[in-house]
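[Meeting: bench + compute handoff]

Bench side (C.D.) handed over the final construct sequence. Compute side (W.E.) agreed to return the predicted structure before the next meeting so the bench team could plan truncations. Sequence as handed over:
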Amino acid sequence: MRWACLLFPHLALDGVLRRHPSPDAPVALVTGPAHRRVLFAVNPAAAALGLRANMSVTAAQAITSACALTEYDIETTARYRQLLAGWAYRFSSQVVTDFADAIVLEVAQSMMLFGPWPRFEARLREELTDLGFRHRIVAAPNAYAARALANLHDGLGVDEHTVDRALGQVPVEYSGLDADVATALARMGLRRLRQVFALPRETVARRFPPTVLAHLDALRGADKTPLTCYQPPDWFDERIEFDHEVELYTALLFPLRRLTSDLGAYLAGRDGGVERFVLRFEHESVAPTQIVVGLLAPERNPNTLFDLARERLEHAEIAAPVRGMRLTARELPPFVPASRDLFDSRAQQAMPWEQLRERLRARLGDTSVHGLSTQLDHRPEHAWIGDGSIKTLPSALADLRPGWLLERPIPWRGAAPRVLAGPERIESGWWDSGDVRRDYYLVESDMGQRVWVYTAPDELGPFMVHGWFA
């Protein structure tokens, strides 16, 4: 087996920055009791101003007032890890979240699908960067070794022949052992894991708790205790709370894009799609404003989801300034990618039909866009009906019937047309007092337009125009 450790050394801070409209501005996380508030973490812009972790808030505010302070929330950070686990689930069915600030996944089987490790690693890095999380990636024969090596390295890959040498160079304080155990080992002059590995097992068992020997065995792959694998939840539910009331529509677009991006990552991990999701905009003193985004077919592309949600938001009436935004998706059917020809003849900038259909519905409203479907009736005015399914007619039928059928036939005007096909007798409708008896022709006008016309049998009269072909 081969395991990859994805370490997120700035998980809590990155989770805030990725939802911040100006991530390059000074930002710091704050924690601690009310009588002693301290900085938990600072971004590079805040560090450049002289702020650092564990500094008191009073001292930080004395240095600068330009730094935005955000409360550190351990539950929110845990949700970030769950989001990343859901994203990683698309690459491996064995994803482990038991390690602090990290996700570990088995990648030996995944490389058969995603290619050799350098290419696979590059893809992981690219997608994590797009998600907004700084990271380190290390691959090793077992999960514990990968986690320990990630404390010191980035981009390292070891196998069963070199893992002991790499682990031997790890300082004991970075090995994953408890802090008091690492301190005790350092006082004994044992500063590297290779020195600890060289100790007799009886000595380690006698001097330290049983968990120390178990951890050392796990690092070297001798402990085969099964790991607990992550299972994705059955629905998606994410929320962003703002530090102040947001009144401008444009200010809601950045958090909206982040929420739809997270939804897309979750759906990709499940290999599924979404047919309906709900946006709730929370207010201070009134009930939340709710926007329902429904789709005709499952979708999971983040850009498409954002475009549809933005179109709905543009036409919605927000009751009051917004204090928080929530996206919930519970209808998550299987996703079937749209089929494409091997040699697609569409223009490069052409929008796929499915995406255009959903965008029109989002912009014009669910009841403003209709499709055509057929029913068993030979009379043209009764053979097609409008519905909400927005399906395309079979190509064979489109060649025989015009795409534009007039509501009422009109007499032919102009020079006599050239008959291309016909006559086709249509005689039906006796059962509902709408009996018709017509001979239809496909004709061409002097301007080259193809027209569907008819005459009444045994009557001398002009052609009646009933439809136009594209």
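W.E. noted at the follow-up: The longest strand covers residues 236-246. C.D. will use this when planning the next construct.
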